[in-house]
Amino acid sequence: MIALNHLIAQLLPLVPKSLVKIFAKQYIAGEKLSHAIEKIRELNGVNISCTLDLLGEDPKKASDCRIAVDTYKKAIREIRDQGLDSGVSVKPSQMGLKLDKQFCFDNFHELASHAKNHAVFIRIDMEDTTLKADTIDLYLQLAKEFSNVGIVMQAYLRTAIDDINQMIENKANIRLCKGAYYWEDKKIVYKDMAIINSSYLYLLEKLLSNHCFTGIATHDETLVFGAMKIIDKLGLSKENYEFQMLYGVQEYLREIIRDHGHPIRVYVPFGKEWFAYSVRRLKENPKIVSYIVANGIKNIFSAR
Ligand SMILES: Cc1cc2nc3c(=O)[nH]c(=O)nc-3n(C[C@H](O)[C@H](O)[C@H](O)COP(=O)(O)OP(=O)(O)OC[C@H]3O[C@@H](n4cnc5c(N)ncnc54)[C@H](O)[C@@H]3O)c2cc1C
Asked: What mean pLDDT do residues 52-60 have?
């Protein structure tokens, strides 16, 4: 079933973007910063923290990375000036990691310093494995100077236990997720969901019992309740962890989590570069993806 979903997801780029956009909208706060700020205010109003994400990955030009830096700096100012409860999430490729490592570090350094001055937290998103080692280096360098920076670990990686041990040694601030880059080779990532879930709960317990603050990023009920069990067993307080979910996904579940007194944060993406992010989200929603692909193919044929 997972293989079939992946196959269907691979057909998505063939579907007209206008059709994908109709379904992608549920995952995106809007194209403008003001749209995202509005959603953050609404979520804060119902006791949900946020992290804001400017969509866009893999820019080809340094000037595009600089535009992203400036947009994030503006967003950070707005968050502080409007008294919002939100951090920001930033992709290393968007800061230029594929162009030049030092350029990327300098961009992150500028952002981290600006965010620190505005008391805003920066989460470094994790992308595909070609960027993992450099992303970890980047984080470790920044963490020497800034306490308002954290990183993401992916439980589907076969190297995840080593990665987590390294993070524990560094008392890192972690977001733990399953991993979203579904085309990674089976030599690199587990493909079996039961194994990914076992890895997730094992790593989560390791992080929490070693006093690493952990963002428990999942919409999977088995993992949510497994996490609650670990939290109870370790007698953790709210300063040690939070749940995290993506905008537009499983809203009823985040309310259950919040209503049971657990801290929860929602990842709020905005911007014009919605396609790559939305394809990853749609792939995680097999019913919708099959529907879009079927309709896209029907449209293509009926247009001939
Ligand atoms: C806050 C946050 C930040 C993240 N940051 C990163 C990152 O930096 N790097 C990275 O690789 N990955 C990141 N991810 C994505 C993550 O790796 C997974 O791809 C994603 O969360 C789906 O995994 P899951 O744990 O929800 O489990 P799944 O097994 O995919 O989903 C569990 C259930 O949730 C529901 N569901 C899940 N996704 C959707 C959807 N899109 N639409 C509708 N229903 C859905 C379905 O009912 C599904 O059965 C992040 C996730 C979150 C929540």
From this structure: 91
Distance 219 CA to ligand 1 centre (A): 6
Q: Is 95 exposed, middle or buried (0-12, 13-18, 19+ CB in 10 A)?
A: buried
Cα–Cα distance for residue pair 152/127, rounded to 1 Å: 9
Question: pTM (2 decimals)?
Answer: 0.93
157 touches ligand 1 (CB under 6 Å): no
The minimum-distance atom of ligand 1 relative to the CA of 193 is 29
Q: Which atom of ligand 1 is nearest to the CA of 182?
A: 19
pLDDT digit string (tens) for 257-269? Answer: 999 999 999 999 9
C-alpha span between 257 and 276 (Å, rounded): 29
Q: What is the largest CA-CA distance in the chain?
A: 63
Cα 32 from Cα 19, distance rounded (Å): 21
Domains of the chain, CATH where assigned: 1-28+274-304 (no CATH), 34-273 (3.20.20.220)
Q: Is the dihedral of CA 33, 38, 39, 41 positive or negative?
A: positive
Ligand 1 atom 43: residue of nearest CA: 285
Contact between residue 52 and residue 75 where contact means Cβ atoms under 8 Å apart: yes
Count of residues making up the chain: 304
Atom of ligand 1 nearest to the CA of 178: 17
Pocket of ligand 1 contains residue 217 by CB under 6 Å: yes
Buried-state track 230-250, b at ≥16 Cβ within 10 A, e below 16:
bbeeeeeeeebbbbbbbbbbb
**Alpha-carbon distance 243 to 264, whole Å?**
5
Q: Which of 245, 158, 232, 155 is nearest to 201 (CA)?
A: 155
